[in-house]
Amino acid sequence: MYDYIKGPITRITPEYIVIEVQGIGWQLNTPNPYVFSIGSEDVQVFTHLNVREDAQNLVAFKSLEQRELFRKLIQVSGIGPKGALAILASGNPSHVIAAIEQEDELFLVKFPGVGKKTARQMILDLKGKLDMLMENMDLPSAEDELPLFGVNPHKHELEEAILALQALGYSERELIKVKKQLADNDQLTSTEAYMKEALKILLKQQ
């Protein structure tokens, strides 16, 4: 029904953003709200209408490839819209596609809500069917250097990132360990940066 929405972003929360179009604020769930910024300039996001018995929710993505991968993921048995958003929150769809193509179950089970059975189902259902999505994607980047440790004053941004990770389904136990590492990293200054670093750490944990 809706292919994309274009307008200024007026609100950002841990779970969704709001884009204003002709005086109407559209509430859009998105994998990582903090990759967006509030401002007066128009932003275009690609959308998917998620219909349930009790609600109809619009989901927004920064790229067309991200949306199409989301649509592929929710077709897999055991993965719902929330689970697919948590997977895509890792940032680059190419990481997920590479894991599926290489049958890397150990990588896939690190996402919240994805067990061995679901990881295997993802591989069975999607391997060899994602070629079109990879045409304009970069390969996964190498690991970053180890962070420097120190005092980071950006507590508000850190708390926002933790709330967003909770909304994606990560447990309090997982986030306690991650939060300590993030708090000691004085190179992180924004909520988006905290989110990206936290997801890297969580995906490396068994």
From TrEMBL:
Q: Which UniProt keywords apply?
A: Cytoplasm, DNA damage, DNA recombination, DNA repair, DNA-binding
Gene3D superfamilies of this UniProt entry? 5' to 3' exonuclease, C-terminal subdomain, DNA helicase RuvA subunit, C-terminal domain, Nucleic acid-binding proteins
Q: Which GO terms describe its biological process?
A: DNA recombination; DNA repair
Keyword DNA damage tagged: yes
Q: InterPro entries, alphabetically?
A: DNA_helicase_Holl-junc_RuvA_I, Hlx-hairpin-Hlx_DNA-bd_motif, NA-bd_OB-fold, RuvA, RuvA_2-like, RuvA_C, RuvA_C_sf
Q: Its GO CC terms?
A: cytoplasm; Holliday junction helicase complex; Holliday junction resolvase complex
The ranges of region (Domain III) come to: 153-206
Where in the cell is the protein located? Cytoplasm
Asked if Zinc is a keyword of the record, the answer is: no
Question: Which CDD domains does the UniProt entry name for this protein?
Answer: UBA_RuvA_C (cd14332)
Q: Which GO molecular function annotations are given, in alphabetical order?
A: ATP binding; four-way junction DNA binding; four-way junction helicase activity
Where is each Helix-hairpin-helix DNA-binding motif class domain found?
A: 71-90, 106-125
Q: Which domain of life is it from?
A: Bacteria
Question: What does the entry's domain section say?
Answer: Has three domains with a flexible linker between the domains II and III and assumes an 'L' shape. Domain III is highly mobile and contacts RuvB.
Q: What does this protein do?
A: The RuvA-RuvB-RuvC complex processes Holliday junction (HJ) DNA during genetic recombination and DNA repair, while the RuvA-RuvB complex plays an important role in the rescue of blocked DNA replication forks via replication fork reversal (RFR). RuvA specifically binds to HJ cruciform DNA, conferring on it an open structure. The RuvB hexamer acts as an ATP-dependent pump, pulling dsDNA into and through the RuvAB complex. HJ branch migration allows RuvC to scan DNA until it finds its consensus sequence, where it cleaves and resolves the cruciform DNA.
Quaternary structure and interacting proteins, as annotated: Homotetramer. Forms an RuvA(8)-RuvB(12)-Holliday junction (HJ) complex. HJ DNA is sandwiched between 2 RuvA tetramers; dsDNA enters through RuvA and exits via RuvB. An RuvB hexamer assembles on each DNA strand where it exits the tetramer. Each RuvB hexamer is contacted by two RuvA subunits (via domain III) on 2 adjacent RuvB subunits; this complex drives branch migration. In the full resolvosome a probable DNA-RuvA(4)-RuvB(12)-RuvC(2) complex forms which resolves the HJ.
Family the UniProt entry places it in: Belongs to the RuvA family.
Q: What is this protein called?
A: Holliday junction branch migration complex subunit RuvA
**Annotated organism of origin:** Kurthia sibirica
